[in-house]
Amino acid sequence: MARQHLRSLVYSFRGILQNKLTCRIPNAHSYGGRFATRNIATIALEQSGTKTILSENDIPRQWYNIIPDLPSYPPPPLHPQTLQPLQPQDLAPLFPAAIIDQETSLERYIDIPTEVLEVYQLWRPTPLFRARRLEKFLGTPARIYYKYEGGSPAGSHKPNTAVPQAWYNAQEGVRRLTTETGAGQWGSALAFASSLFNLKCEVWQVRASFDQKPHRKSMMEAWGAKVHPSPSSLTAAGRAILEKDENSPGSLGIAISEAVEAALADPDARYALGSVLNHVLLHQTVIGEECIKQMALLGETPDIIVGCTGGGSNFAGLAFPFIREKMAGKINPIIRAVEPTACPSLTKGIYAYDFGDTAKLTPLVKMHTLGHQFIPDPIHAGGLRYHGMAPLVSHIYNFGLMEALAIPQTECFKGALQFACTEGIIPAPEPTHAIAAAIREALHCKETGETKVILTALCGHGHFDLLAYDKFLAGQVEDLEFSKEKLSEAMLQIPTI
């Protein structure tokens, strides 16, 4: 099946190239580069003209917590039964003490444990690429840079938080972790991290994705995880959904309910989350901290920073350290979150307290939400399917420190093919949103003649997403809109606080 998908992809690429819908590959020897600061990383950059590499000594030793630097603290999470502000002990059945401390911390910097740093060295620091071939294809004077996180063992940015979460749980004697996953990136990362620290891992994968991406299941199982399609008959939350619709495609909200229910039923188990919460965004800031060093090596300052947003972890990882510099008056880039029109929590969602899951087992958090009953259309191939945005990202958005944009998935996949044919990496569907936004900006610079610096994060490769590319190349991917009617209906389910 994988060979057939790859053959289809190659043939389709040829057809698109012949029809001039994407790109011609620029000459590999047409570039050079000169930079003021000369060290090992800079010399490597001068030789290749495209890549900035840091040494292991440049891996950040601390995670950055943006909360103390904000004009005000974000609204507190609420207990799902009492609707009163959540107390740290309320989270003890789900998370280890160290994670709870990080979730509520007001410390600006938090030390990364030595054992976590040792695992980070398997793939960190990650390279910063200049997309020279894409620039040439677009004919833009803009300079496009992307921080590539696809070299991790799981192929995405997700191990940046999976590894510390697994380690902290292991330190407290937890024996089993439960979680949900949508496209499979997070489930793969947690399965990998759990295998390092001898933890059992159980994953509920959104049914539509489970069916579309069988090799994600294989990857998780190779690292010892147990994987279930969600909704499943293993939990009360899953059975309740199946009673209403035995063919339910599932959602992240449903899968979260199942994973949380399973964790609460086992005293030796805890729950792990791959996005949305403060501690997850905290762990991802290694991306932006490294990137600041790399941009400094180049003598570059970003004018526009774009990142894809579903739950918010990839975007926060890149953007939060740059927002710190922006708030300090050192730089003044436009910082833009990019989401799918099929799941536009920032651009169309309501900023309100809502549950993080369908069965209402989780605390209520104030976030931009489409409603906890939201179920994405199964033909939405572009990833980023969660009903809510990270409370911290939502809070920062309300301060005007960042912008938000929704892009339809056909434009995203077209941009992905342009990127693949020039830069060589087939992106995961999620970062195609940021790529499409970067291409928009680059083409605008072509019209205006501006030499802006555009920065984005390519948070993972698409090697397990070729079925989505097959469908796009076959003309079977449609642009989806989230209607006002759907939003009005969803808002009826949101509790009044």
Itemize the secondary structure elements and their pairings.
Blueprint: H1 2-18, H2 40-48, E1 51-52, E2 62-64, H3 97-103, E3 109-111, H4 114-120, E4 128-130, H5 132-138, E5 143-148, H6 159-171, E6 176-181, H7 185-196, E7 200-206, H8 207-212, H9 214-222, E8 226-230, H10 236-244, H11 252-264, E9 269-271, H12 278-284, H13 286-298, E10 304-308, H14 313-327, E11 334-340, H15 345-348, E12 350-355, E13 364-369, H16 391-398, E14 403-407, H17 409-423, H18 432-448, E15 453-458, H19 466-473, H20 484-491
Parallel strand pairs: 5-15, 6-7, 6-9, 7-8, 10-11, 10-15, 11-14
Antiparallel strand pairs: 1-4, 2-3, 4-5, 12-13
Helix pairs in contact: 1-19, 3-12, 4-6, 5-17, 6-7, 7-9, 10-11, 12-14, 13-14, 17-18
**CATH architecture group name of the domain at 2-60 and 115-156 and 281-491:** 3-Layer(aba) Sandwich
Tally of contiguous helical segments: 20
C-alpha termini separation: 50 Å
Rg over CA atoms: 21 Å
State the assembly state of the protein chains. single chain
CATH fold name of the domain at 2-60 and 115-156 and 281-491, please? Answer: Rossmann fold
| Main sheet properties | 7 strands, mixed
Record the strand order, biggest sheet: 1-4-5-15-10-11-14
Q: What is the molecular shape?
A: globular
Number of DSSP-assigned strands: 15
Instruction: Please identify the structural class as seen in this structure.
Output: alpha/beta
| Helix percentage | 40-55%
CATH classification, class level of the domain at 2-60 and 115-156 and 281-491: Alpha Beta
